[in-house]
Structures are given as structure tokens and as C-alpha cells.
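User: My instructor asked us to take a sequence, write out its structure as C-alpha cells, and then describe one feature of it. I'm not sure where to start. Here is the sequence I was given:
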Amino acid sequence: LSPGAKMGFFTFIKVMMILFNLAIFLGGGALLGVGIWVTVDGQSFVKIFGGISSTVLQVVNVGYFLIVIGAILLIIGFLGCYGAQKESKCLLMMFFSVVLIIFIAEVAAAVVVLVYTSLAETFLTAVVTPILKEKYGADHEFTHIWNVTMAEVHCCGLNNYTDFEGSPWYEQNKNFPPPCCKGLSPCNASLAAASDVQGCFDQILEDIKTNADVVGGVAAGIAALEIAAMAVSMYLYCRLDQK
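Assistant: Let's start with the prediction itself. The C-alpha cells for your sequence are:
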């Protein structure tokens, strides 16, 4: 390629890098805003997006999760966009390093989930079950989120109905949440055992396996974008040495 063609290609890649990371930056800002909204007023969020928001993220605080993801995207978008605009080798290398760390972490997390699913279940049981026993029936927002989750996902507790034994709800009503008995009430221990409703962890895993093609496609798409972003940032970094 002639020097002019090389410079034109460099400019094109630079503009694409800026636009792509500007979109990431704006997306990160939107997620951060939603995360703050959920943290401050989670009840109204669940009322508006009840069906959509009933996912595994509700086992933990979805607001904090969105804040963290939004902040990470803001940082990545800023480093990529500003680094390409100012042709800063330092910022481009930082962008490459951050995306590489995230990519490695995602691969490691995928391996852990695939290989150590039972370990993940044990860990979640140790963390989530005590929270259920402490807050379900006492914390209105927490209780509402779990009720929506169990109703939408058709599950009961993290593992099964016994997760609610000793909870404020159980102590007050002497029965289990209706989803644990497929909506029948009063949901006592014998009816809950006979209903044999799956725990939310197992049900979500089953849903993921059922939609494995979609999940795999999304994961592959994200991985491809990350690899492309690293390749472009490294190309710009190396070309700056030749300018």
C-alpha cells in the first residue's frame, strides 16, 4: 500500500475506534444511571420491568451489579475513545490491558462455571441461604424481588423450600411462599415437599442449557468484539511509532 493509502486506512480505523468506544461510554453511562436508580428505588424498577428483571441477578443486588458494569464500561469507553482521539500510546495500552484482563477473567469464569458448577452452587448456598432466612418477610423490597423471581422462573428458594425455614415469613405465617407449592395455599411443609418445585439455581441452569445456542452465540459475539477491540488498539499503538 502507498503511504497515502496506509494513512487513509489508519484514519478510518481511528474513527471507527472512536465511534465504537463512544457507544461503549454512553452505554456504560446508561447502565450506571439504571444501577443508581435500582439501588435508590428498586421497587419501582421491579414493578416496571418485573418479568424482564426476574433473572439470576436478582439473587444478589442488581443495582450494585449494574453500577460496577457501568463504571467498567465508562472506563473502557473513555480510554479507547480519548486514547484514539489524542493518539495517546499510554491510553491505548491501558485500553488494551483492561480489555485483555476482562477477556481472561471471562474465560476463567466460564471454565469455573462449566467445571465447578456444584462448587458454585455450594458457594451460593453458603452466601444466599442465610440472607433468605434473615430478610425474607422482613425486608419488603427483598421479599418482593424474590416473589417476582420465583413466580416468573417457576422456582422456590435457591435450592428448595427448606431455604425459607426460620425466615421472618415462616415464623410469622408458619408456611412457605406460595410458589413453593405451585401457587397453592397454605403452603405447608408436606404440600411443599409433594409439589417438589425446583430451586431457582437449578431452574436457571436448566433454562441456560435449554437456550445454550443463544447464550453461546452472545458469549462468542462478546469475545469477538473484545478480540477485535484489542487488535485495533494494538494496530493504532504500533502505527503511532511509524508516524
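For the description part of your assignment, you could build on this observation: The chain has ten helices and no strands. Try explaining in your own words what that tells you about the chain.
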